[in-house]
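Q: What would this chain look like folded?
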Amino acid sequence: MLLLPRKARREPLNDGDDRSSAAPATAGARRNEKVGNVVSTKMQKTIVVEVEMRKAHAKYKRIVRSTKKFYAHDEQSSARMGTWCAFARHGR
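A: My prediction, written as C-alpha cells:
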C-alpha cells in the first residue's frame, strides 16, 4: 500500500461547478523557450547553454536529472560563463 502525504489525500474542494478559468490554447504545445546555465563563451557571437531536465523514471518513479547543451546566438557577446539565460529555439 502506498501512503501519500496528508495534503495529497485531501479531496478537491470544487470538482466541477467553477470552470471560469479555462486553460490557454497553447497548453499542449511544446515549450520553445528554455532556461539554462552558460557554460562556454569561446565562440564569436555564440554561447553554449546547458539545460537541465528533471523527469520521473518510468519504472522506479525517482526523479532523474539529465542535461543537454544548446548553442544560442549572442549578438552583443554580453553573456558570461556561469550566468543564467533564457533563449528561444528557432528553426528545426
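Residues 50 and 69 are 4 Å apart (CA to CA).
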